[in-house]
Amino acid sequence: MLRALALDLLCASSHAAKVQGVLALDLQAPLDPGLVLQPTAPIPGREARPELVSPAQLHKRSVATTEGRAALLHALAHIEFNAIDLALDIVWRFPGMPEAFYRDWLGIAREEARHFSLLAAHLETLGYRYGDFPAHNGLWEMAEKTRDDLLARLALVPRTLEARGLDASPPIRDKLRHAGDLEAAAILDIILHDEIGHVAIGNRWYRHVCTERGLDPVAAYAELAECHGAPRLRGPYNREARLAAGFTPEELDALPA
After folding, report:
1. Which of 24, 94, 143, 165 qualifies as a FRET site for 156, CA 20 to 30 Å off?
2. CA distance 237 to 234
């Protein structure tokens, strides 16, 4: 069953095994939406590297140097690896949703695995590997905060943390392009294109759950963000990408400057 397989892959401690397993997923295989699953190993499965530290301990490096570009690409690869885990986690953790919900998120997991593979492969051309730099655990920490409420997970992961990637990707891409790393810039274009679709899926299912619970999506989001300590958003925003990802003009106008 696909949901049980998602849990197994989430628990996999080998980076390579997890990525390869996700890329090999048959999204049309049977799944049991009502099955209540329990992990039999720590989640998420992780290798010893990269070392996880607080964001304040991560040093900024100039992308004018090979090491600086590698550190930036490593940070992006770590985000994509966490995004694999987040997609797998939402599949097994929350039973009782329509089958399309689980297939959507498994499709997202597969695209995140492709993003990670592209970044990791390019990182190796610079003489580095995933795990060579420290990283922070912010994305997974939000998964922990929202583990008991699907609506909170949808509001604060795809609609908040992943949506921030829509804003951040173009300036990062431009920085890499200016540094002469055209291949890395092209990978960022692929990621931005796909992430618009991922955030759109998050928006669609967030509104689905709001409708089921009789909640106003805008008011519910503000309450969930405050309750779970969501990071404060700051502009500039990629308004075009956010509109394409399903945010309404009302929601965009409500964003802090």
Report:
1. 24
2. 8
In this prediction, the residues of the chain whose per-residue pLDDT falls under 70 are none
Look up residue 147 and give its two tokens. Answer: 């583990």
Paired strand residues for 135: 52
Asked if 92 and 7 touch (Cβ cutoff 8 Å), the reply is yes
Over the range 152-179, which residues count as b (16 or more CB within 10 Å of their CB) and which as e?
bbbbbbbbbbbbbbbbebbebbebbeeb
HEC string of the chain equals CHHHHHHHHHHCCCHHHHHHHHHCCCCCCCCCCCCCCCCCCCCCCCCCCCCECCHHHCCCCCCCCHHHHHHHHHHHHHHHHHHHHHHHHHHHHCCCCCHHHHHHHHHHHHHHHHHHHHHHHHHHHCCCCCCCCCECCHHHHHHHHCCCCHHHHHHHHHHHHHHHHHHHHHHHHHHHHHCCCHHHHHHHHHHHHHHHHHHHHHHHHHHHHHHHHCCCHHHHHHHHHHHCCCCCCCCCCCHHHHHHCCCCHHHHHCCCC
Contact assessment for residue 117 and residue 171, using Cβ atoms and an 8 Å cutoff: no
Q: Which two tokens stand for residue 227?
A: 């309750």
Q: Which of 239, 107, 233, 226 is nearest to 170 (CA)?
A: 239
Burial class (CB in 10 A: 0-12, 13-18, 19+), 80: buried
- Pair of tokens at residue 44: 């998420």
> pLDDT tens digit string along 94-119?
999 999 999 999 999 999 999 999 99
Percent of the chain with pLDDT over 70: 100
